Amino acid sequence: MTKRKIIKINENKCNGCGLCIPNCPEGALQVIDGKARLVSDLFCDGLGACIGECPEDAITIEEREAQKYDEIKVMENIAKQGENTIIAHLKHLKDHNETTYYSEAVNFLKQHGINISSGKAVNGSFDDRTQESCDAVKKSESSCPGAKIMYNAPREKPGEAEVKIPVEGTPRPVPQSRLNQWPIQINLIPPNASFLENADLVIAADCAAFSYADFHEDLLKEKILMIGCPKFDDAEYYLEKITEIFKTRNIKSVTVVHMEVPCCFALTNIVKQAIKSSQKIIPFVDINISVKGKKI
To answer: How far apart are the first and last CA of the chain?
Structure first.
């Protein structure tokens, strides 16, 4: 069992209409005794595709102890439901940029010789015919669009974006964003986000990126970013979430970046305590930035 985001159904509000069922291709929901029920934690990815279809607002997302989502178990269930359900599930994963789960689903289809006749979904991409089939599956909005998970592979290689701009007679490279994922706010990142697996984490106080001019080039290359404010946000929630990430994901290293002001050092303490609580050995680096924007 692990603490993660998962749907919750308010039985007092649920009228058993079943409109949520088609929007859960994973098969986590069934109408039983006149109420929608979550029949298996294993099948619920916590992304909330079912929420927007509930006319009674009976479905929400909570964070609780639950069995870890299992993509293989989901695919074993989905494969029995036919091509359209498979396509809907693959599109659901792609819409949320869940690349790890998508790869697991594609590999399952290949291993079991299941072909998608309407396109190239099993090869990891969608052609026009597959896209038309996917668009026919009604898409619901799960939550805040700004929380949609996205992972970007590293963009240009160093030097590719270089142009000659006169700066005291020498060319200078165009600044390049090194951000590799979205969202970046600690409050918005789900602990089961696939980009966290095998990640080198940078956990930064949000003031640090504005204060340190070389933040992207010096600290963020090929790393995953989490930002927050230990003074104004819920420190206990930070500790709980970061601890869960450390417990459930293989984190290669963690770098904490904070300002020199006293309240900002709380972020270091939170991360150190989370490492201790996770009972794992995670390489740790602490970086202190002055109010003048320099490393101390």
So the answer is: 41
Do both 210 and 193 map to the same domain?
A: yes
- Give yes or no: residues 156 and 42 share one domain: no
What residues make up the domain containing 165? 145-289
Q: Are residues 129 and 151 in the same domain?
A: no
Tracing tokens 């970013």 back to the chain, one arrives at 225
Alpha-carbon span 67 to 42, nearest angstrom:
6
What CA–CA distance (Å, rounded) separates 207 from 64?
31
Which residue type does 242 have? I
CA 88, 93, 99, 104 torsion-angle sign: negative
Check whether residue 229 and residue 285 sit in a common domain: yes
| pTM to 2 decimal places | 0.51
pLDDT of residue 167: 57
Identity of the amino acid at 209: A
Identify the CATH number of the domain in which residue 120 sits: 3.30.70.20
Same-domain status, 83 and 165 = no
Query: Quick one: which H or E segment has residue 266?
Result: helix 266-278
CA atoms of 55 and 15, how far apart (whole Å): 9
Alpha carbon 91 to its chain's center = 16
- Give me the mean pLDDT over the 9-24 stretch: 86
Q: Is the pLDDT of residue 57 over 80?
A: yes
Q: What are phi and psi of 189, to 5 degrees?
A: -80, 120
Rounded distance, CA 185 to CA 226, Å?
6
Same domain as 177, residue 46: no
